[in-house]
# Entry
Amino acid sequence: MELYLPYIIGAIGGLLLGGGLAYAALNGALKGKASGIIREAEQKGENIKEKKILQAKEKFLKLKEEHSKEIKSRNVKVQSLEDKLKNQERNLNRDEQQLKDRRKRLDRDEETLKARLNASEAKQKELEKAQAQSAKMLADAAGMSVESATEKLKEQVIGDAKAMAAQEVQDILDDARSRANQEAKKVVIQTIQRVATEHAVENSVSVFNIGSDDIKGRIIGREGRNIRALEAATGVEFIVDDTPEAIILSCFDPVRREVARLSLHQLVSDGRIHPARIEEVVAKTKKKIEEEILQVGKRTVIDLGIPNMANALIRMVGRMKYRSSYGQNLLQHSREVANLCATMAAELGLDTKTAKRAGLLHDIGKVSDEESELPHAILGMKLAEKAGERPDVLNAIGAHHDEIEMTSLISPIVQVCDAISGARPGARREVVESYIQRLKDLENIALEQPGVTQSYAIQAGRELRVMVESEQVDDEKAEQISFNISQRIMNEMTYPGQVKVTVIRETRAVSVAK
# Structure
């Protein structure tokens, strides 16, 4: 045992020495791995930090760009308001100067009238004195009494005064006729210059933009159930074609088209698109549009200062916002006509409130809910009559296209202002060439009838006057020609409103005195 003791002690020492070396090696490997993990974590941290910094920079740049756009938009609006205020200030200054000039003219006229009145009084005194002297002379010369001579002289003076007055009246009428055309042009030009209204352009289709073509499938629905439900609820045709990220809404009624557009926007935003939900959203949207129509009508009446208007008429005024004629928004057109009528009535010394009321309501027949074969002027007159409007306003509405006879001074003003608003450059989208061609087509249709010598399309194509040869065409044939022309116009042409065909057969007897 003692012999092996040194070997045993050596073996134990070797084992202890090997264990220490192994521990040292394991400890070094663990420290190396830990350092690698720390370096990797630090590298990931740096990457995340750089990524967050880049995202923050991108968000900052995006917010900065949006802020710049908003500032630019506000600057444009502010500049537009400043320009409008400057224009109004210039108009007010011009009106003030015109009032000053008119006051000066009135003062001069007043002084002239006073001078004439004084001169007339002096002449009257001289005439009375001369009359008394003449009466006395006549009495002395003819042996007449003073009373008889006075009566005879009065008759002579009255006859002379009537002759002078008739001549003066004739001179005044001649002067008025010579200046009437010039004064009328002056009034119209001043009215146009003082009133300027913006106009909007609308079409018979609306484009609804969507985020992606995937939404088209949800709008169409399984076997087209959703789109059929939309068309049935709104009365609008939904055209889903190859146009990328867009759906076309087609309908001639702009109110229905707006209901369809807002309903589709609500459905797409909400994400729930099925027939029951479609009916619910469309019903809510219709109610919202009706409330907006009433609010627009009330706001328009208040802006124009027109009091005591029936709710039915206010609603029709609101519906004008969604109606257009040749691209000219009907509400803007009616507002412009109302302002023009008020300005022209003021120039002519008439009631401006009545003129403005008639101008605003002159086209309400175009937005009636009921179907009627009547012209829009006559229909509008009947609707206004039901609402209790005054007779002069009713006549102005019904006569602005000459369907009835004008009985009020407001009526020609409304007709003229309607023509001014519709004829302004840029007010309506109809191309001049197509308008002229339509008038030529109307005249050519009439000229193709046997016995027709001349034809004239008047009132912007709303009436066709046809002259026939009296020797070739009798009264019955004239009626047949009128009917044939109207039928050809209905079948072959496209035109707004209605066209009145008037056939004129005239017989003349001419003799020459030599």
